[in-house]
Amino acid sequence: MKLILLGAPGAGKGTQAEVICEHLNIPAISTGNIIREALKKGTEMGLKAKSYMESGALVPDEVVIGIIKERLAQDDCKNGFILDGFPRTVPQAQALDEMGVVIDKVIDIEVPDEKIEQRLSGRRVCENCGASYHTLYKPSNTEGLCDKCGGRTVIRKDDQPETVRDRLKTYHEQTEPLKEYYAKTGKLVIVEGQEEVAETTKLTLAAVEG
Ligand code: AMP
What is the pTM of this model? Predict the structure, then answer.
């Protein structure tokens, strides 16, 4: 199954991608994680993306399209995949179509902006493996340490309140039009993000299977 998860930053795409990944045994591909990894390694792509990412802007289309082309060509994508954070613009969606990728479903997780701002202020990520936590909704077993690898959990630079507002603006201007793009194909399913992660997960899995 080939799936796209749409939604604002902080809507819970990453968490839902992990659940579907385990459920269907297909890889979850996050362009944000790939870029953060490249940044950490100091690769040319990482350096190119750095200033955009830290200011809450989108990395140029040609860079992320290149990343996705390379990643989807890998063996583990043969039986399907979940795209988390790609596409984020109409030209990115068109590039995916042009690659001949036929998407089965696009799941849009909807969460109001006020909730997003509140959620992102509690988000913590492992600086070592990228696992995501939340001080209220998904705390790690030991505060400040990752359950998976024991790394330090930190606030992402782009989760600072001013940057979050810029990211939401970018989302509404550049990513939200994708809802209409995919609604036209009949593949869009809307999931209302719930207070409890487990409740959202139930709705997401029902959307995947329905
Ligand atoms: P995320 O972890 O998905 O919130 O992504 C973090 C940041 O990486 C975004 O704010 C963008 O700067 C960049 N990024 C990730 N995916 C994309 C994409 N598909 N298009 C452009 N920029 C992206």
Answer: 0.90
Q: Is residue 128 part of a domain?
A: yes
Residue 156 in domain: yes
Q: How many angstroms separate the alpha carbon of residue 57 from the centre of ligand 1?
A: 8
In short, whether 32's Cβ falls inside 6 Å of ligand 1 is: yes
| Structural domain of 155 | 2-26+79-209
- What burial letters (b/e) apply to 193-210, b meaning 16+ CB within 10 Å? beeebeebbebbbebbee
Cα pseudo-dihedral 168, 171, 177, 183, rounded to 10:
-90
Asked whether residue 182 is domain-assigned, the answer is yes
Residue having the nearest C-alpha atom to atom 15 of ligand 1: 32
Q: Is there a domain that residue 169 lies in?
A: yes
Question: Rounded distance, CA 109 to CA 102, Å?
Answer: 21
- pLDDT band with cut points at 50, 70 and 90 for residue 157: confident
Q: How confident is the model at residue 210 (pLDDT cuts 50, 70, 90)?
A: confident
Name the domain count of the chain: 1
Is residue 54 pLDDT above 90, yes or no?
no
CB of 193 closer than 6 A to ligand 1?
no
Q: Can you give the CATH number for the domain in which 163 is found?
A: 3.40.50.300
Give the residue numbers marked as catalytic. 13, 88, 123, 156, 167
